[in-house]
């Protein structure tokens, strides 16, 4: 089942999108402003977002910016405007595609199918389908849960992403700049201190003795790695 979030302040538009995208394999979530959309994304595993630009409470550009802080699912922007400035702004913030109202139903379906195919079948969504296991650590990326020896561990979003990054690449050393660029998606200014703090907090949560870690190791002068054989 594919989960699609429809976010537009006009309920008629949301209903029309549901009709255009009618598919027994799709589960739809509805939001009527950016704040509602973000609340749904925090609670549910969303595979694609159709997001209006002009909305009350929180507009689409601000909403997309916050989505991209933690999520990489495809986002298709919707707007009644056709000016290039809106399109460029949305794409610069991290939109994957752009559709101008009024919609052509066939175009909407084609663009949604294209983004889902790329995300779910060609690699971008692959990590979300996997469970990573190294030693006593199990990271379930579908549920966004981490367990240590069977007990749930509470991690911040950034701690979670760093752990997932390392677990997806066991026994490989990454510099603080590489880790920062991968997780924050921006220039790694001050990466050493930021990553060091997050690694310390991670160790406090997943190591029996953080001073003598079993999993996350420091390779002096080079960076960090997670040690152990990965099992699926």
Structure explained in plain terms:
By secondary structure, this protein is α/β, with parallel strands linked by helices. It folds into two domains: 2-127, 3-Layer(aba) Sandwich (Rossmann fold), CATH 3.40.50.2300; 130-231, Arc Repressor Mutant, subunit A (Orthogonal Bundle). It is 41% helix and 22% strand. The chain contains eight helices and twelve strands. The protein has helices at residues 11-20, 34-43, 60-70, 84-93, 105-121, 157-167, 176-184, 191-206, and strands at residues 2-7, 26-31, 48-52, 75-79, 97-100, 131-134, 137-140, 145-148, 151-153, 216-219, 223-226, 230-231. The protein has a five-stranded parallel sheet with strand order 2-1-3-4-5, sandwiched between helices. Strands 9-8-7-6-12 form a five-stranded antiparallel sheet, covered by helices on one side. Strands 10-11 form a two-stranded antiparallel ribbon. A hairpin with a 4-residue loop joins strand 7 and strand 8 (145-148). Helix 2 packs parallel to helix 3, helix 6 (157-167) crosses helix 8 (191-206) and helix 7 (176-184) crosses helix 8 (191-206). The longest helix is centred in the middle third of the chain and has 17 residues, at 105-121. The radius of gyration is 20 Å and the shape is elongated. The model is unreliable at 125-129 (pLDDT under 50).
């Amino acid at each position: 089942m594919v989960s699609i979030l429809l976010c537009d302040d006009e309920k008629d538009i949301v209903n029309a999108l549901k009709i255009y995208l009618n598919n027994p394999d799709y589960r739809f979530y509805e939001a009527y402003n950016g704040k509602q959309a973000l609340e749904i994304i925090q609670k549910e595993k969303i595979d694609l977002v159709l997001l209006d630009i002009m909305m009350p409470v929180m507009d689409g550009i601000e909403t997309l910016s916050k989505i991209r802080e933690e999520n990489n699912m495809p986002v298709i922007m919707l707007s009644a405007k056709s000016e290039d400035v809106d399109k460029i702004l949305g794409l610069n913030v991290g939109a994957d595609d752009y559709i101008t109202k009024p919609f052509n139903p066939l175009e909407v379906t084609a663009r949604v199918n294209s983004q889902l195919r790329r995300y779910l079948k060609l690699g971008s969504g692959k990590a979300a389908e996997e469970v990573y296991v190294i030693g006593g650590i199990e990271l379930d990326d579908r549920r966004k849960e981490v367990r240590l020896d069977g007990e749930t561990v509470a991690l911040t979003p950034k701690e979670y992403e760093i752990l997932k990054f390392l677990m997806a690449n066991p026994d490989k050393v990454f510099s603080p700049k590489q880790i920062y660029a991968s997780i924050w998606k921006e220039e790694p200014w001050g990466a050493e201190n930021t990553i060091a703090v997050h690694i310390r907090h991670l160790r406090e949560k997943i190591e029996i003795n953080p001073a003598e870690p079993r999993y996350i190791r420091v390779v002096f002068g080079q960076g960090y790695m997670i040690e152990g054989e990965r099992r699926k």
